[in-house]
Amino acid sequence: MARYTGPVCKRCRREGQKLFLKGQKCYTEKCPVERRSYPPGQHGPAQARRRKQSEYAVQLREKQKVKRMYGLHERQFRNLFSRAVKKGGVTGENLLVGLETRLDNVIFRLGFASSRNQARQLVRHRHVEVNGQLVDIPSYEVRPGDDIAIRMKSRELDVVEGSLESRTRPQLVEWLTLDEKKRVARVVRAPTRDDIPMDVQEQLIVELYSK
3-state DSSP: the chain helix, strand, coil percent, rounded to 5? Predict the structure, then answer.
């Protein structure tokens, strides 16, 4: 499956809000969402003038927003939703927890990368270990008790150091602990919905896939 490599700001404009897909640049550059508050394309201004969206359109936009935040393809996202359904409990919360416990997202939350896309590259390029073993699968699901570390020879990478020193790095979430000097972290418990600092209406996604 090909991954989207076009202008990420178009995706933010399509969803009508910042998705912070460019990492630190989203804080330092003038965002196109602020300059052109309508969807991209020749029909963008016309869409912005529409007063009301259908129920399906609202649900679809919420799903697309979350999928793009985490950088997943449709098949990956649907498979994650299917696993969330099978777990029992609140499906929407299970879905968000599944997204949060992906290894690439955890690397981003720890501040080792300035964006999820950059975190995915760190994992793919074999810079990350879990419990002392090299893991190069971004979708790897971390569990309570797992130790996550940047490999010894990769700890001085400019990407890692620059992200950790950035003023815009995400605040460390409560379900993770970090030894910044050693570049080692631990998953102390499973995240809950309250631990996920995202303005997302996950119930809309559940309703969309339940049709």
Answer: 45, 10, 45
CA 164 to chain centroid, in Å, comes to: 18
Check if the beta carbon of residue 186 is closer than 8 Å to that of residue 144. no
CA 163 to CA 76: how far, in whole Å?
A: 27
Show Cβ contacts of residue 40 under 8 Å, excluding neighbours closer than 6 positions.
Answer: 10, 13, 14
The separation between the first and the last C-alpha atoms of the chain, rounded to the nearest angstrom, is 26
The residue length of the chain stands at 211
- Return the structure tokens found at 180: 């910044």
* Rounded-to-integer distance, Cα 26 and Cα 34, Å: 11
**Residue showing tokens 């969803």:** 15
140-164 pLDDT, tens digit per residue, is 999 999 999 999 999 999 999 999 9
- The predicted-structure confidence for 125-145, as pLDDT tens digits, reads as follows 999 999 999 999 999 999 999
CA atoms within 13 A on the CB side of 123: 22
Sheet strand arrangement including 176-179: 133-134, 128-130, 147-150, 184-187, 176-179
